[in-house]
Amino acid sequence: MKQNIYDDPRFFDGYSQLRRHESGLNMVVDQPAMRSLIPPLANKRVLDLGCGFGKMCRYAIDQGAASVVGVDISTKMLAKAREDTNDARISYVQSALEDLNFAPSSFDVVASSLALHYVERFDSVCANVKSWLVTGGAFVFSVEHPMVTAYPVGQYLAGRDETQHWQIDNYKFEGIRHTQWFTDDVIKYHRSVETYVNTLIDKGFTILRLLEPEASEDEIRKRPDLREESRRPTFMLISARA
Asked: Are strands 133-144 and 235-241 parallel, antiparallel or unpaired?
């Protein structure tokens, strides 16, 4: 099932406001971790899977990339990406990630930020990325942590105190999850850490690093509520070599 939730008007409006003010965990947790894993990009050919508004594409060019292809299924997201981009080295492609087709060895680096948990066949994406990368090329991606996707019902109050907790259930039962975020029935796919790691290995990648990042102390001082997010991992990032 290929879902284009980002073109839903209510979802797009809510998500746009979140990104406009950079108030979400994407900027304070995911992006710093992603940038710490991405190799030097000077003169590299980069593919961004699930590029959204194109921020990582523009970052790659700022870091000296020779060319960047950003891919997203959303018409609305790509319209904003093109509006904010003024560089001929960046091109945008509208497609579901599962439908992409590039020639072998087309890229030196493939990156994906918080997009692959929307994809049903992670194994197929990994096989494709392995083909599209040059030997030794980098695959760096982030997903919602499997502890989050396993039972995505949010926090609850436990006992008489006011402490928030998260439930973890059905961790080993992988597959579709119906969630609520800005709108009803947002479809995501739960996979265990074991599945993410072993799928990469099975498709011929070498795992270089796995991160479960949290906000920096500077960010927590600005927003003390971020301390709560450090009680369990929100995202998981993996760096692999083809």
From this structure: antiparallel
Backbone angle region of 213, left / alpha / beta, with phi > 0 → left and psi within -120 to 50 → alpha: beta
Q: How far apart are CA 29 and CA 143, in angstroms?
A: 12
**Which are the contacts of 194, defined by CB distance < 8 A and separation ≥ 6?**
none
First CA to last CA distance, the chain? 28
User: Which structure tokens are listed for 162?
Assistant: 């006011």
**In the predicted model, what is the mean pLDDT of residues 165-175?**
89
Q: How far is CA 213 from CA 30, 96, 100, 154, in A?
A: 7, 27, 29, 19
- What pLDDT is attached to residue 156? 58
Backbone dihedral angles phi then psi of residue 170, each to the nearest 5 degrees: 55, 30
Global pTM reads 0.89
Give the Cβ contact number of residue 169 at 10 Å. Answer: 8
Written as six digits, the tokens of 135 are 């030997």
Distance CA 56, CA 8 (A): 23
- By the 8 A CB rule, do 192 and 234 touch? no
Residue among 185, 199, 194, 148 at smallest CA distance from 169:
148
- Model confidence pLDDT, tens digit, residues 53-77: 999 999 999 999 999 999 999 998 8
> What is the spatial distance between Cα 33 and Cα 196, in angstroms, rounded to a whole number?
18
